[in-house]
Amino acid sequence: LLAPTEMSSPSLKTGAYILIGVGALTMLMGFLGCLGAVNEIRCLLGLYFTCLMLILITQVAAGLVIYFQKETLKDELSRIVGNLIEKYGPLNDDERNIEEAWDYVQTQIACCGWTGAKDWEKNKYLINQSMTMYPCSCSNSSKDSQSDTGFCKLDIPVNGTATYADWPVHEQGCMDGVENWLKDNLGVILGVCTGVAVIELLGMILSISLCKNIHSEDYTKVPKS
Q1: Which CATH number goes with the domain that contains 143?
Q2: Which residues of 75-110 are buried (b: 16+ CB within 10 A; e: fewer)?
Q3: Which of 63, 73, 113, 209 has an alpha carbon 20 to 30 Å from 7's alpha carbon atom?
Q4: What is d(CA 149, CA 104) in angstroms, rounded to the nearest whole number?
């Protein structure tokens, strides 16, 4: 069976920890912002501004890392998906959730394997079945539309054996499918990222304005000697 450690990598773990940290910081930021604005506490508004600035810097840094380290990340994903495909099987209960997630990716993107259906020729279960079965989530046949997980059997195996070329599956690999999806939706992705950044900048400007107003009110309340 595929050990959990084989499905992880330092880069992906670091990315997951960063996302968890940003999520926790966002919750803290929202609480501090509301409390500071309602009670007019400059210290909390300052912390709110700092949290927003840190989140914005983290997002920009993450974008730069993804852009400049995309080949490294692609290699990491290739290794992880390769291990998953090789060990994928009906008896692999320990990694069932990960396998179902990969089946979902292949179904939604209409792809097969990471670079292509040939990747599945390394699967131990399919090798034992003389390649007379194929992953249902790869199928381009309407008769397999109700089966999005596990393996489907070829109707007429050739001489009792087959190859991936005999399978009724999508020719596109998921790596190309993901890249094409990103290219097709690049405008939407950039628009969402820009919108989030603008909202964060507005929040930072608002917190500074509130701090100045509070400071001005405190100054006017000081009795003149």
Answers
A1: 1.10.1450
A2: ebbeebbbbbbbbbbeeeeebeebbeebbeebbebb
A3: 63
A4: 8
Using DSSP, state whether 198 is helix, strand or coil. Answer: helix
Chain center to CA of 81: 14
pLDDT digits (tens, 9 = 90+) for 85-119: 999 987 777 778 888 889 999 999 999 999 999 99
198 domain-assigned = no
Helix (H, G, I), strand (E, B) or coil at 8: coil
The verdict on residue 134 lying in a domain is yes
219 within some domain: no
Residue with token string 């179902």: 100
The residue from 71, 96, 123 where one domain ends is 71
Helix (H, G, I), strand (E, B) or coil at 76: helix
Taking a C-beta distance cutoff of 8 angstroms, is the pair 125, 151 a contact?
yes
Q: Which of 97, 162, 178, 90 is nearest to 129 (CA)?
A: 162
Match 């069932």 to its residue by tokens.
Answer: 96
pLDDT of 25-37, one tens digit each? 777 777 777 777 7
Does any domain span residue 210?
A: no
pLDDT in tens, 2-14: 344 444 455 556 6
